[in-house]
Every structure is written in C-alpha cells, then in structure tokens.
Amino acid sequence: MRTSQITRKTSETEVTLSLNIDGRGQNTIDTGIGFFDHMLELFAKHGKFDLRLQCKGDTHVDAHHSIEDIGICLGTAFSEAIGDAKGIYRYANITLPMDEALVLCAIDISGRSHLTFDVALPDRAVGTMDTELFEEFMQAFVRKSGITVHIRKLAGKNTHHILEACFKALARALHAALTIDDNFKDEIPSTKGTLI
Predict the structure, then answer these.
(1) Can you give the pLDDT of all 196 residues of the chain as single tens digits?
(2) 50-57 and 27-30: which strand pairing?
(3) Residue 169, CB half-sphere, CA atoms under 13 Å: how many?
(4) Is the pTM of this model over 0.85?
C-alpha cells in the first residue's frame, strides 16, 4: 500500500492528513472552506484516493494560509506515498468536460516541480473562496510533490464548472500516471534509474 500521514502545525494553521493512493475514493474532508471541501472530495473520488483531511486555520483573516498549507501537506503526502515510483506509468493526460467547460491536464511524475496553470476564471470568488487561491494551492501541491503539472482551460464560462473540471482532470491524470504497469513493476520509469 502506498500511504502517508502528515501533520503540520503553524501559528496560522493545523493540518492533519492521511492518504492512500491505492484506495477507493473514500474521503472525510473538513477544511473550514465549503467550496474547497467540495473540490477535494471530487479530487479524492475521481482519483480513487482515500483521503482524510482536517484543517483548522485562521479563516477569520482569509482562506489563503489554509489553502496553501493544505497544498503543502497534500503534496508532501503524495511524494511520500509514491516513494521510488517503481512500476508507475509516470505520464498521463486527460481532456475533461464539465458541461460547457473543457480542461486539459497533463502530468509527469518526474521528481521535478513545475506548474503551468493557464486557467482564466470569470469570477473572483465562488462561495466564500477567492478563486485566485486555486493557483496558490496547485503551486504548493506541485512544489512539495515533485510533479510536473500542466492545466489549461480550453473552454468554459461558469467558474464552478471550470474549477470542478480542473480538480477532476488532475485526479484522473494522477490516477492513470500512478497506476502500476505489471509488466515493469520493478523498474523505475527513467533512463537515469531514479526520479529524484
């Protein structure tokens, strides 16, 4: 089983998280930010990741510290759970529709952090959450996970639909890239012999 447990406590947030990337999409998520809970629930369900996550943050200030620290913890958890990456397919991409929205996500479990987030969002907020914080979350996740992620909006007018497509696409691309290739389950998918 590829699993990880993370606890992070700062003067701004307290995050506890457990992850099983070989799960069934079961999740219990409480970030204190309703729309973000919804996105992470979709992420867990569509990636088939078992995810337990709780965050107590200074949301009386705003959601920024909570969102960023959750990205840090989730990225760290993926990095730990992936380990040496033996046998994984490594690369994956998906073009995912959500009603009028269409999002492309391509990833490389490379050991190298890179994010291209080319997603124009029509609204500045969904529910109580500033939409600019989604790129902050993705940046923190990518930085700590060591994954190359490209997310590009191809179409979309409804901010909720666009973001939902982003999270579902990321989840499904990660699931595909992290799947073990039984024909090469003892090999690291790199000519260097390492992804770190």
Answers:
(1) 899 999 999 999 999 999 999 999 999 999 999 999 999 999 999 999 999 999 999 998 889 999 999 999 999 999 999 999 999 999 999 999 999 999 999 999 999 999 999 999 999 999 889 999 999 999 999 999 999 999 999 999 999 999 999 999 999 999 999 999 999 988 988 878 777 6
(2) parallel
(3) 28
(4) yes
